[in-house]
Amino acid sequence: MNGFRDRKEDKGPKLRINEQIRVPFVRVVGENVEPAVLSHRDALKLAEELGVDLVEISPKADPPVCKLVDYQKHLYQLKRKQKEMKANSVKTVVKEIRFGPQTDEHDYNFKLKHAQNFLEEGSKVKAYVFFKGRSIVFNEQGQILLLRFAQDLENLAKVESLPKLEGKRMIMMLSPKSAKKK
User: Fold this and answer.
1) Can you list the residues of the chain whose pLDDT is less than 70?
2) Distance between CA atoms of 68 and 19, rounded to whole angstroms?
3) Global pTM value
4) Which domain holds residue 70?
5) Residue 181, in any domain of the structure
6) The CATH number of the domain where 99 resides is what?
7) What gap in Å lies between CA 40 and CA 46, rounded to an integer?
8) In 3D, which of 132, 129, 128, 122 has the Cα closest to residue 156?
9) Are residues 75 and 107 in the same domain?
10) Which one in 81, 95, 157, 171 has a CA-CA gap of 20 to 30 Å to 33?
11) pLDDT tens digits, one per residue of 164-180
């Protein structure tokens, strides 16, 4: 093997067409065709008469559903539909803000302004307090800091998860409020 994959097989969904369909009876649907249950041989003859392919679209149905359609056109429509769905999907961005257990006021306000900007852009904010060495004994301070952070951002964000200690980090997730109140 030379390390290259056969790309012709990778494109599109795996659909059985024409003679690849191995069931005695199929339910035939399509444009200008009345839905009916036909034998596989009769369905192939009908597809040949119309100059289209017999494409199995629902193999788990009883009997399997096959559509009379041009196979290449069907693949093109499926790919276009998937591309539209991908374009319409919302991509969530998570921005991280790191604190120490003894973060002073100036640093806190600086990070608070960044978090406000991130939330206004529509990004989620993952705020966490990182404990180094023995500073883990101040985990109550970390929790107080994160709760204060959430309270200061309550007009822009809602808390997805309350502060939770995971190893040496205490993490809290904030997401932007969807609708602003006027």
Assistant:
1) 1-13, 179-182
2) 14
3) 0.51
4) 7-85
5) no
6) 3.30.110.10
7) 10
8) 122
9) no
10) 81
11) 888 889 999 999 987 44
